[in-house]
């Protein structure tokens, strides 16, 4: 027994606790992202006294900036994480950024801060700079959580259990997406502003606790097949870092001076693989669709139906809650039928449902009036939430399997652990790109041509993605076939 081991090392470094800690971190990140959306109109108009005609513009800029920050910070975070022996450190830094950002957002509407801003700057931006700064910090922290968290998860779970672990993590992600916007509007309308913000601070406290007690195992079990002629049977030492610079290959095959070439070969191999490209495209479109709808939904519902924060939150509930029930069956369906069929059907089914969302309140559809329009909108949103599990998570799952297969074929290029950081930075870049493009596209269309024509454009994008999925997605996951025949 190693007397130098910290207290509770065996259970604090267990796979169960690592997976649990990562899922709590992902839940906190998605919870905080969605928490602001239904109450943002109230914060801008009632507490910051922004003209209501400017609400959609500020909402678009705020959500777009979140995606932009994630886009540029994900590769940087992945690079820095490669240089860090322990992945717990970047996770804690991202937590600190998230905590500071959340406090800045919550206090951005405080009376004292507004008084100072009125003295220093009488422009509208002077009123919202703290709100924007806090959101930027949340965006960078969220990118760190996704990149490092998923890489740590993939590094510590065998390939045969990777699907289940990813599924559990995505369930918590979905719970965060559902819980954030659902409870924020309800708490605001029933209990007030500061009571509403006490809940995300409680979630952050839970996240702090989970990350502090977690310890990375000193020699994680990696599902990596090394060729028999690799030249050595030596196992890594117990003190080997999680992101060791030494790959399990011949000492003379690939020297340290070639690591720059190794990275270039890695990205060339990944970006020349059709399965990788369609996976990233799926991530981009899913993120753009969800963030675009989130961006315009509150203002549209206020303008068309006169709804306030509570009823707007219920619409987010209708959109997100089917994922909790249907994510598992959707994953089971993909395991049995492969990715192509279910994903293509999911994208195709979104087309008419998104078009139906645009009918209520539009002069071209008098049959979708006030009473009927509310039913049509709610029903379409619920149906859309029911088919989205077929397309959500497809990109991340396929990328995880692709990199596992490539690691087994060429461990010299796809080093242990480091490839997971790089591939999940690609996923985060795709996600952040979608989070930036979605609000930018929908906000511009909403203000220029209206909500209905905005849904027409979104429906067309989903149709194109359905075609791409049918042409390029796998009918079956090769790694699953290999395992079943082994």
From TrEMBL:
Name the record gives this protein: Major facilitator superfamily (MFS) profile domain-containing protein
GO molecular function annotations of the record: transmembrane transporter activity
Organism of derivation: Penicillium olsonii
Residue span, Major facilitator superfamily (MFS) profile domain: 18-477
PROSITE patterns per record: MFS
UniProt-listed InterPro entries: MFS (IPR011701), MFS_dom (IPR020846), MFS_trans_sf (IPR036259), MFS_Vesicular_Transporter (IPR050930)
Pfam family, one: MFS_1
UniProt topology in membrane: Multi-pass membrane protein
